[in-house]
Amino acid sequence: MAVQFGTAWSSVIKGVGVVAGGPFWCAKADAYDFMTGYTGPISRATGPCMKGTASDLDISDFISKTDAKAASGEIDPLSNLRGQRIYLFHGYNDAIVDKSVTDATADFYRHYLGETKRSNLYYQTAIGAGHSLVVTQEMQANSLNPCTANDSPYIDQCGYDQAGIILQHIYGVLNPPNRNQLKGTLKRFDQSVYTKPDAPDALSLGHTGYVFAPEDCERGEHCRVHIALHGCKQDVDEIGQTFVESAGYNAWADTNRLIVLYPQTRSSDFIPYNPRACWDWWSYVDHTDSYVTKSGAQIRSIKTMLDALTSGAKPRPSPVGTATPASALAVIDTSDNSAAIALNPMEGTVVYRISRAGVDGQFTVVGQTTGPSFADAGLAAQSTYRWHVSPVVNGVEGQSSSDVIASTRSAPAPCKAPGSCPIAK
User: Fold this and answer.
1) Is a pLDDT exceeding 90 seen at residue 380?
2) Which candidate among 146, 187, 364, 370 keeps its CA 20 to 30 Å from the CA of 346?
3) Does residue 416 lie in a domain region?
């Protein structure tokens, strides 16, 4: 659903985090499917979109549909995707969704990013999580799972701060999260206001949604909005407020002027094809291919919520919610073959040049970015590297930042079955 919403409304979405999810229009639901029955989209949703092989997930079909929807104006121009930051994750103990599905999502985004924006995409596959969102042990709670679990509430404790990594890959270096009592407020709101003319049940949406508002934002300071979409069986009817309170976003939002919107689905008596309260990624609401477009019932409802949150927004005079100084640089994550680098862009900087070196080697320019992050790929496993960046303003390269050092993880160990693999370090 994050891929669908971020693609349909790419003009207003800065970045997308995808945890074990498939590409745009993965279930290939079209109007013709419903002339003869509903088995087509369901079988594709539970088949190729969860357990498909590479041949089942030929991205040319997804790209053709995406191109057609953009050409018709049903989704935003695809040139916007080149500016998005994309975080992808697949835990190698995931027993529910195969890695081939997330690989197809990576290929989908790489097609639209192109070679020059390839570093906008960071793909983490070296964490031994089951099918889940992933949190650190610092956020430990009795209701959460050990790292390799594939069970409810689908939040695993792996010593990995996924929310913080997603947020910093999208927004750049942020202030440290508030691990103590939060100053902001978690509020409930009536979702029926934003589903009209339909009732929430008709769209398989819950009656109550949630939003976390930092204290700074309550006072009217400039803030941004992050939409956190729960997974199947993670709605409040199923697991209470566990996702809303324990996925990790609120602690980061509290210190970085980020409002977090938590829309809610539900299983519905009106819609028998969604017993697990999933978001509509196989057209169970409208039974047409509009479900991936701006007019799709659930996408339209989420956008209406977003519009309500941002209706009083004014142009901000300077970046907000970022760390100081302006040259702040951090390696926020590493996999076995890549590193996610976040920075704090300065006003007026056109581009940042990224340089990398081995522990004792010479620095070499490995790429550049015009935004707040850079994914450096092609690294060796269990190796240590250094990075620095230098701003280029009006064609003149400025002084390099201080070096940051990080080591890549070990490659995922071979295992007999998902759920039994050791956790890479």
Assistant:
1) yes
2) 364
3) no
Q: Where are the alpha helices (DSSP H) in 36-149?
A: 39-46, 48-51, 59-71, 99-113
Q: Is beta strand 404-407 parallel, antiparallel or unpaired with respect to 373-377?
A: unpaired
Q: Residue 247: its pLDDT value, please? A: 96
Q: Are residues 230 and 182 in the same domain?
A: yes
305 and 370 part of one domain:
no
Query: Is there a single domain that holds both residue 194 and residue 280?
Result: yes
Domain CATH number, residue 381: 2.60.40.10
How many structural domains is the chain composed of?
A: 3
Residue 147 lies in a domain: no
Give the residue-averaged pLDDT of 250-275: 90
Choose the weakest-confidence range: 33-37, 59-63, 115-119, 346-350.
33-37
User: What are the C-alpha distances in Å from 85 to residues 117, 118, 326, 350?
Assistant: 9, 10, 20, 17
Q: How far apart are alpha carbons 253 and 155 in whole angstroms? A: 19
Range of the domain at 182: 161-323
**Whether residues 178 and 274 fall in one domain:** yes
- Alpha-carbon torsion angle 138, 139, 145, 149, nearest 10: -70
Q: Are residues 170 and 319 in the same domain?
A: yes
Q: What is the residue type of 331?
A: V
> Is 164 exposed, middle or buried, given 0-12, 13-18 or 19+ CB atoms closer than 10 A?
buried
Under a CB-based contact definition with an 8 Å cutoff, are residues 15 and 84 in contact? yes
Q: Measured between alpha carbons, how far is 130 from 153 in angstroms, rounded to an integer?
A: 12
Are residue 398 and residue 258 in the same domain, yes or no?
A: no
Within 8 A by CB and 6+ apart from 13, the residues are: 5, 6, 84
Q: What is the mean pLDDT of residues 222-247?
A: 97
Q: Do 394 and 290 belong together in one domain?
A: no
Contact 382/407 with Cβ under 8 angstroms? yes
Instruction: Point out which residues pair with 189 in neighbouring strands.
Output: 209
CA dihedral 160→329→13→229, nearest 10 degrees, is 10
* pLDDT at site 315: 77
* pLDDT recorded at residue 418: 58
